[in-house]
Amino acid sequence: MDRLGDLVADITTCCRCPRLVAWREEVAQRRVARYRDEVYWGRPVPGFGDPRARLLLLGLAPAAHGGNRTGRVFTGDNPGGSGELLFVSLHRAGYASRPRSIGPADDLRLRDAYIAAATRCAPPGNRPTPDERDACLPFLVRELRLLPEVRVVLALGGYAWTAALLAFAQLGHRVAPRPRFGHAAEAAAGSYRLLGCYHPSQQNTFTGRLTQAMLDDILVRARALTDS
Fold first, then answer.
1. Domain residue spans in the chain?
2. Are 49 and 115 in contact (CB under 8 A)?
3. What is the separation of C-alpha 87 from the centre of its chain, rounded to a whole number of angstroms?
4. pLDDT in tens, 127-143
5. CA-CA distance, 114 to 183, in Å (whole number)?
6. pTM of the complete model
7. CATH number of the domain at 4-227, please?
8. Of the candidates 78, 77, 98, which has an alpha carbon nearest to the alpha carbon of residue 88?
9. Which DSSP category does 180 fall into?
10. Closest Cα to residue 77, out of 49, 101, 57, 105?
11. Bridge pairing between strands 152-156 and 55-59
């Protein structure tokens, strides 16, 4: 019987994408000055959270010196990075036990939420390819099967939106015509609801395209959808 532990083991030992393998390992060896004394994870990063979650948050990919360093997605980013904004809102919404994610050894716990990435390895330039997304897609399909209470998938960005729709299709919930991504966009796919949110990257937050209030509002909407 497939279990979440089996999935995590399969993700963390994956070597399907040569470009990503080379990059994640290069970053882990080269490091950057502020983390030069740390041992990097340097492998694919699995999802984490509540196995009874009704909300699955789906990001783009681990950051080179964030998830690729700590081994936990959206964790260990620089000040102002994606994880900083995200966990503040998750804490406010009651999904996270604390407003900051430092590393797997901290006491952060997710309640009713699970976080994963469409591509499980840190990509060069934060730009995974569609082929790399598709190579990771079976992991997302298995994740959804192993998280039977999930009712809402919150796609953080258009790349994750597409990955979610492809996973739904493999689960027998094809949506046609394919709905377009947008902030606060919604789509139904069988028993799932897909909800869109701009990715909490510095590119979006520093320009004001995504604010903390907007992210707070999206999580309020996610809670309403899981509760309905």
1. 4-227
2. yes
3. 12
4. 999 999 999 999 999 99
5. 20
6. 0.96
7. 3.40.470.10
8. 98
9. P
10. 101
11. parallel
